[in-house]
Every structure is written in structure tokens, then in C-alpha cells.
Amino acid sequence: MHWDKLALEDVSMTFNPDRPGEYRALAHTTFSVARGEFYCLLGPSGCGKSTVLNLLAGFVAPASGMIRMGARRITGAGTDRVVVFQDAANALFPWLRAHENVEFGLAIQGMPRSEAARRAQHYLDLVGLSAHAQKFPYELSGGMKQRCQLARALVLEPEVLLMDEPFAALDAISKRIMQQELVRIWQQFHITIVYITHDVGEAVLLAQKVAVMRRGPASCVKDEFAIDLPYPRKPTDGTVTATYAKVEASLQEEVGVSLYAA
Predict the structure, then answer these.
(1) Which of 69, 123, 124, 194 has its CA 20 to 30 A from that of 259?
(2) pLDDT averaged per 10 residues, the chain (length 262)
(3) 1-42+67-80+160-262 architecture in CATH?
(4) How far is residue 188's CA from residue 193's CA, in Å, rounded to a whole number?
(5) Contact, 40 vs 109, CB < 8 A?
(6) Which positions ≥6 away from 169 have C-beta within 8 Å?
(7) SS (H, E, C) 155-190
(8) Does the global pTM surpass 0.90?
């Protein structure tokens, strides 16, 4: 399918609209992600980042507005958009080995077992997990679990990868390694990535464009920052730290307190 951008157009989202506890998560939210772009959504807790991801995935429908992938309106889930969740331990099937987890979506699609195994092996190799293909999830480290979940998403060869704080639970070293691996895979496959985070540093190191969301309720995108910096990016580079400061200032307005307060 030919498409040029993934877009939310004047999207609002309300939960429990017929009850006294109605909550308006998003209000008139508009932004677009170009095909092949690495796009980060950044914002404080409760600002609607995960709601946006669920809308893009087609898991929920907006109360108003439209979500488009090119000229096609998104009205439900599809294999052209795949989600990588924050909690890989719960996202993986504990009764299946790593390679079986990766093969699972292909089996659901009816792919012959031999072809599914061949393709799964290719993506396990890609994420550096081939030596652990026979292990169950409980035998994998946190970083390995996330690699397995990433392979399970990539094996479907989606056009858009939707990532909900996928490395938030990892230790600092594992997180940096996974960030570098993700950039490598993105550059190799030119896949479109929408990445949710609350970490300014992560957003600046990874994204071509960072969108800062307003504090909820009734959130929307308030600022966008184009980050035209070469990869790999180092946190100590002057251009990176200058960009960090600009993005952080926008986020700090929503947090309402100094990010460096004791």
C-alpha cells in the first residue's frame, strides 16, 4: 500500500462519556508522522501518550476526528501496524520458547511451519537472540525479553512500529544497548517508528522529530522539535545537549516544577 504519512486529524478521546466520571484524555489532537520517520511522543504521566498509541494501533476508536494512513482511514487493528509493549515479560507467552513466540503471529496468519521457522530465525539473528532461541521467557534477561518481543514484531514485517516505553524497565547499560540496536534496525529497514517516552534524553538520542504533549486531561501536541543530528548521537555532544535543553524547557512547562528540584 502506498502512503506518505500516518496522521491524527483533530482527534479527541473521551472515556466513560455516559457516566459522571467522564474523562477527556485528548482534545483536538493533530500531528503527522512521515513514512520512514522516527517520531517520539514525549510528555508527563497521564498526558495521553499511550492513548495516542492505542488509537494509531486501531485498538480503540476516537470520539471524534480521523486517523489516516495515507488516504486510508484507520478503523481497526492491522498487521501493517505492530505494537511493542513496555512489559515484555507479560507480552511474551510464557509457555512458548523464544522462537515459538516469534513464530506465533506467522502461524496465526497461516504461514507454513517451515517458512515461519525460517523467517523467525532470520529476525532472531537480527536482534542477536539466535543463541537463546530455545529458551522460555523466564530464562531470558530483561533485555533479551525485549529483543524477543522486538523480533516478534519485526517478523510480521509491518510498515509502522508502535513502541510504548519499551526500554523503561531496563538497567542503564541494557537500555543504551537496546536504543543503539533499535536505531540500527530502523536505519536498515526504513520502518516508521512512533515511540512513546517520558525521558527527554532518550527522545533526543533516538528521534528525528520529538512532539511534546500537554499535561492532561484534554491533552494535545503543544510543540514539535525537528532533530537534524547525525547518528550515533552521544549525550555529551554540544549539539545534543543544546537540543535537550530546548525540549526539556517545553516539557518543564507542563510538569510545572524544575526537573532538577531536590
Answers:
(1) 194
(2) 91 82 89 97 90 95 95 92 91 96 94 95 94 96 94 95 93 92 94 95 96 91 95 92 94 69 38
(3) 3-Layer(aba) Sandwich (3.40)
(4) 13
(5) no
(6) 86, 87, 88, 142
(7) CCCCCEEEEECCCCCCCHHHHHHHHHHHHHHHHHHC
(8) yes
